[in-house]
Design goal:
single chain; mainly alpha; 8 helices; globular
Length: 200
């Protein structure tokens, strides 16, 4: 990311800096990927029988659904708000963060599979993705000048470590459920709050 991407434009004299943060990418990411982790919990806990290839296709469908909802159909914040150049920059930054998270997890999992290190795979998706969410909320803080978003960034970082602990002490199924709850709390809920705020 360039310095220009991460730095919010200066406010006019005597004018408060406007809210530049569109919550729809976070909302859809948290809702869609959180829901998929609930399905993954049901699968790993033995509550649902889903063939492996089908499950992989479901994750790809989740990614496509996220892209369609957040960036193609642009469901959420008002069109006039999204049309602002600074908001477009933010949406692009957050989109790159989430897609980079998905690509990084895919690459690491593929490498572990190639090396036959299956035992290490449960430690990758949730913790690695949450590190990217921490980066995304930090970008939101930098671009908006609102340090409150750094709280969400820190929470995401702590949650990444927490998921590792859950995987070790409770197992993969419970890690999936914990990851779903984290996504609902640290992405979907604040994203929805921002969408509603920008509609007022």
């Amino acid at each position: 990311m360039s310095t220009a991407t991460l730095t919010a434009p200066a406010a006019l004299p005597g004018q408060a800096r406007t809210n530049l943060i569109d919550g729809s990418p976070m909302f859809w990411a948290g809702l869609i990927f959180g829901s998929m982790n609930v399905v993954q919990f049901a699968f790993k806990a033995g509550y649902a029988a889903i063939p492996g290839p089908v499950f992989g296709l479901m994750w790809m469908a989740a990614l496509v659904t996220f892209i369609m909802a957040a960036f193609v159909l642009k469901i959420g914040s008002p069109a006039a708000f999204r049309a602002r150049p600074e908001v477009k920059r933010f949406r692009k930054a957050w989109g790159m963060v989430i897609l980079s998270a998905f690509a990084t997890v895919t690459i690491i999992m593929s490498v572990l599979g190639y090396l036959h290190q299956v035992a290490l795979m449960p430690f990758v998706p949730g913790p690695v993705a949450l590190l990217f969410y921490a980066l995304g909320w930090h970008i939101a803080a930098r671009m908006s000048g609102n340090n409150g978003f750094n709280g969400l960034s820190l929470a995401s970082f702590v949650a990444a470590a927490g998921l590792l602990a859950v995987a070790v002490f409770a197992g993969q199924a419970w890690q999936s459920l914990a990851y779903a709850l984290v996504l609902f709390a640290l992405a979907a809920a604040p994203g929805l709050a921002l969408i509603l705020q920008n509609r007022n």
